[in-house]
Structure formats: C-alpha cells, structure tokens
Recover the amino acids of this structure.
C-alpha cells in the first residue's frame, strides 16, 4: 500500500533532521496525525516564524528578531569589549554567568582545515572591520578550548595584533567538580602556569 | 566468563587524527592505532566540560585507549594521554602542518588495516613538526615515506621507460607512472614534468636515508618549492583528490612569511589593505 502523499512527505522531512531516523520520523508523523489541530498548527507556525522572523544581528551576527540584537542595542553594555564566540548558544552560556557586561561577536563556526572551513566562511573579516571602526578596547576570545577553537583564537589574535587592541583568551583550568587524577596534562599544565593568588 | 569479558575489551595505542561531534555530547573520533590501523571510535560525553576523557582524546594526541566493542561503533572507555605534542597546539603554522599530515594519513589508509611502520612514521612526524626549525623538511619526508608505506613508493633511480640508471642531467618526473624518466625518454612522455637535479638528489637522499641524517640539510627556497610541488602533484594524482587542509596551510604560511599578518584577510572577502 502506498502512503498518502502528505504523510509520506512529512516523514521524509522529519527524517532529514539530525538524530532522526526513518522509524522516529514515522512515529512523529503519526503522532501529529492524531494530535489536536491547535498543537499541530502551533508547531508549523513556530517553524515558519523561525524562518521568517529570525535574522542575524548586523553588528554581532547573533540570532535576533531585530536587525540589531538586544545586547548590541543596549546602551548599558560596554561596547568597547567584544567577546568572540563560535555559536549563538555560547552567547547564552556566557550570559548565564552574569559576569560579562560587554558585547559579542558570533563567528558561526571554527576553522576546520580538513572540512575545508577557512576564515572566509566565518565572520572573521567582519570582526576585524568592527575592531577597526569602533572604539574597541578589548577582544576576549572565547572559542572552545579544543584544537580547532585554539587555532581559530590564534588566527584572530594574529589578525588583530597590528590594530593595537588588547586581545585576551578565556582561561584554561580545572572544571568545578573535577578530579585532579583524571585531568589531562595540557589542562593541568595551564592550571599551574596560570594559577591564581588566594 | 573472564575470557569473554576480556574479548569485549581491547587496548590500542592511538593518535587522534580526526573527530566530529556526534549526538548530544559525544564525538566520533578517527584514530590511527598501532595494533589495528585506522579505527572510528565513539568517545562518549567528551564535549561535557567535566569529561575525564576529553583532554586525552584531543586532536593529535598520542594516547593509550581501552576500547569496548559496541554494536555500531566501538566505545572508548578509558583514555590516557602519552604525548600531547604541545608545540603543535601553540603555533598556528605547525598546527596547519599537523592537520595536513593527519589528512594525508586519513586519505592513505583504510579502516582496520594495521601498518605499524606508518604509525611510527606518523608519530615521529608529529614530533618533528613540533621541533623542526623548518617544518617543510619533516613534512616532505612524511609525504614520500607515507606514500611508500601505503604502496606508492616512487622510482627515483632508474628510468621507468628505458630502465637505464638515471644520470645527472635534465630528468623528468611522471606522476602517473610514479617515478622518473631520463633525459631521453622524458620529453616524449605525455604528462612528464622536468625535475631539477638538486630536487631529485634530495628526493633520492630522503628515500634512502633516515630522517636524522636529513635534518642537517639546508635547502634553497627554490628547491623547497620544487619538492613541495612535485610531491604534491604525485600524491594528489595517486589519491585522486586534493587534501583540503593545504589551503589553510598556505594561508597561514603566507602570513607568517610576511612577518606580520595583514589586518584584513589578504585577498579575502573584504580585500582591504592594511592601515599599519
């Protein structure tokens, strides 16, 4: 028996999402088939809005509903300090600490030579432009502490060096709740080198 | 019972050559191991900040792994770093070379095809790339010998056409036939490129001598450039594709050689000139 076209089509669309195989896709589809109309329409509306209402902030390239995101538009924030992150989710993580009062710059990825991701695919040129134009005092590089993130940070630091701006890097150290015995050499070494006064 | 349990776990000495995010907090890690050749293993939870394994399965670390057989992927249950190759992490240019070496190794090998000699060579290359004043030398050595160990050793001593020993004259390199042609046969062969005497000498020396004896060589920039070009042509022809990380390497190297990086990506999307 052939599936009704709309059903087959939705299964196909679901199956394209990450982490969803054909079985899960059909389960979700049949669930929606039986779900109340409001719920189904709310979902389709949410998806549509995601596409139609979300844009990238013209200044920091974070996801935003406005051409300039709330953080960049906020005069209370310190616009002379830019925190550079890989993904919009990283902005959320840093915001949750409540310790950072500057603005952000979202790269949308990291340098990945083997996947062929170079500086042109990231918002690196835009960052340099921003630093060159504005009254930027400090750029805090908050890419992930892995090799790709480190390489990206080093690359940006080199690009910014001639501009005379202060370039800092998120510190490396031991995680809260961790265990020295299991710490890797690189982290432990950094933790010793950059130990803090008590 | 005990023997059954032992079979479900195995040990491997590995270098991490590639990885990608998988699921919520996991990573699929491509390792080149001494015992089992190239393997794709699942490292669970390594993207969590408190992961006990994360630092030990970073790219380009030499680590001892304990692996459990799984259904789709075998799972890394314990990892202990032997050598983190710090210099490769602290210098962008050396990072670029390490990426390139790892990509080549990945392209040259098949899963589960042990090649302990190639493992040793790769390990030594990572160490040399971190230490050498001129990383191009260990890189060329790796290209030539990794190709050799993968079954593509080029013929550098006798002409592939007339079988006569190569004489010090204008010789030719033919990527398709995998070696040199003499001054008489070369010009007639389609696809042969001229190779200078110094470049050929260095290639022959590299093929027959251990790396330690090579270290003292100081090559002229033109010879470096030619060696790079010949080997690159040979390996892209043989692999039937061009390693992607070369672009990054060139980008970084260009900027290092110019002393300071220009303020804007040179020739990049903005194309603006440096104000300093």
């Amino acid at each position: 028996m052939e599936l009704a076209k709309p059903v087959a089509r939705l299964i196909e669309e679901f199956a394209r999402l990450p982490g969803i195989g054909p079985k899960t896709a059909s389960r979700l589809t049949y669930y929606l088939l039986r779900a109340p109309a409001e719920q189904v329409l709310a979902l389709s509306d949410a998806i549509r809005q995601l596409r139609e209402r979300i844009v990238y902030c013209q200044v920091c390239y974070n996801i935003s509903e406005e051409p300039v995101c709330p953080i960049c538009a906020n005069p209370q924030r310190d616009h002379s300090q830019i925190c550079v992150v890989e993904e919009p989710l990283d902005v959320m993580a840093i915001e949750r600490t409540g310790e950072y009062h500057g603005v952000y710059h979202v790269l949308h990825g990291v340098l990945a030579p083997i996947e062929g991701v170079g500086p042109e695919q990231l918002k690196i040129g835009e960052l340099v432009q921003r630093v060159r134009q504005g009254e930027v005092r400090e750029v805090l590089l908050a890419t992930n502490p892995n090799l790709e993130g480190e390489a990206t940070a080093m690359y940006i630091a080199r690009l910014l060096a001639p501009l005379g701006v202060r370039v800092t890097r998120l510190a490396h150290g031991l995680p809260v709740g961790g265990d020295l015995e299991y710490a890797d050499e690189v982290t432990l070494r950094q933790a010793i080198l950059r130990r803090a006064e008590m | 019972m005990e023997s059954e349990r032992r079979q479900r776990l195995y040990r491997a000495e590995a270098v991490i050559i590639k990885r990608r995010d998988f699921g919520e907090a996991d990573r699929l890690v491509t390792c080149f191991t001494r015992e089992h050749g190239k393997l794709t293993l699942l490292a669970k939870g390594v993207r969590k900040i408190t992961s006990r394994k994360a630092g030990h399965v970073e790219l380009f670390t030499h680590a001892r792994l304990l692996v459990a057989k799984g259904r789709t992927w075998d799972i890394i249950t314990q990892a202990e770093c032997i050598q983190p190759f710090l210099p490769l992490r602290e210098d962008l240019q050396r990072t670029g070379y390490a990426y390139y070496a790892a990509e080549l190794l990945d392209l040259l090998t098949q899963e589960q095809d042990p090649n302990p000699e190639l493992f040793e060579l790769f390990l030594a290359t990572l160490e040399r790339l971190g230490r050498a004043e001129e990383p191009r030398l260990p890189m060329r050595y790796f290209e030539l010998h990794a190709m050799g160990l993968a079954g593509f050793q080029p013929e550098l001593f006798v002409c592939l056409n007339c079988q006569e020993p190569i004489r010090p004259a204008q010789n030719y390199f033919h990527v398709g036939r995998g070696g040199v042609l003499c001054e008489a046969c070369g010009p007639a062969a389609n696809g042969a490129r001229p190779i200078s005497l110094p470049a050929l000498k260095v290639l022959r020396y590299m093929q027959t001598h251990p790396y330690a004896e090579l270290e003292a060589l100081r090559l002229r920039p033109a010879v470096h450039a030619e060696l790079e070009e010949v080997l690159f042509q040979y390996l892209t022809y043989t692999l039937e594709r061009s390693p992607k990380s070369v672009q990054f390497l060139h980008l970084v190297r260009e900027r290092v050689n110019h002393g300071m990086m220009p303020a804007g990506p040179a020739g990049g999307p903005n194309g603006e000139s440096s104000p300093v």
